[in-house]
Write a structure and sequence with these properties.
Blueprint lengths: L21 H24 L6 H66 L9 E11 L2 E10 L8 E12 L6 E4 L3 E5 L2 E9 L5 E10 L6 E8 L2
Antiparallel strand pairs: 1-2, 2-6, 3-4, 3-5, 3-7, 7-8
Length: 229
């Protein structure tokens, strides 16, 4: 025969047995640990955070530095423009110099052609007086001289002295000679001299003696007698 088991009734308050899951506890623990780590890094390892006053000063310094950078960029642009203009001017000057040198070379060649066509010095010599012109005007004597010498391709300039001696008359003396101030020379293949010299009052030159010396009162390298017109 089947018999039912007795049922026990507990009329007291039932105890709550719920516990939070483990994953929730781990999540909360990780969050707290991360927040603590951030606070630790900010407070211990990273530089101190700026105050409002420090931030304002930093912003002002940045703006001043940016303004200075802008000014320097403008100065650099201006300096660049000036440099470009100077380079362009230098190129123009170089081109003008090349043209001037070419013109000077043509003039030298033309002069050499003209000198070569002049009659030779009858006396010859190391230095030849190829052409000369003298003109007296009151107390001044103007002169033009063309001197030449034979040189090699690598010959050095020949130092020397040009001595002009005027022969003429004064009211007191009908025949007298006057040596003018010597002129230093550095002779190449040719030398063209133009100038003037003072004469004593009343002196009328008729003839000029042109002497080229190796030094003052030295050896005669060339000589020619010419009439004053």
């Amino acid at each position: 025969m089947w018999l039912a088991k007795p049922v026990a009734f507990d009329y007291g308050r039932r105890r709550n047995s719920w516990r939070p899951p483990r994953w929730l506890l781990l999540l909360l623990g990780g969050t707290l640990a991360g927040a603590g780590g951030v606070v630790y890094v900010q407070e211990r390892l990273l530089p101190a955070r700026l105050t409002m006053e420090e931030s304002t000063r930093l912003q002002g310094a940045f703006e001043a530095a940016d303004a200075e950078r802008t000014r320097l960029a403008g100065d650099l642009a201006q300096a660049t423009r000036k440099l470009d203009a100077a380079v362009a001017s230098q190129k123009t000057l170089a081109a003008d110099l090349a043209v001037s040198r070419a013109a000077a070379q043509r003039l030298r060649e033309d002069l050499a052609s003209v000198v070569a066509a002049l009659p030779p010095d009858p006396r010859g010599g190391v230095v030849e007086v190829r052409a000369a012109r003298f003109s007296a005007n009151g107390s001044s004597l103007a002169y033009d001289l063309v001197l030449t010498r034979a040189v090699g391709a690598d010959a050095r300039p020949l130092p020397g002295v040009l001595q002009l001696v005027a022969t003429g008359a004064t009211p007191q003396r009908p025949e007298t000679s006057l040596a003018l101030k010597p002129i230093a020379l550095s002779m190449g293949a040719q030398e063209v001299l133009r100038g003037s010299a003072a004469l004593p009052e009343g002196f009328r030159p008729r003839q000029m003696t042109v002497q080229v010396l190796d030094k003052a009162a030295g050896k005669v390298l060339g000589m020619r007698l010419l009439v004053v017109r």
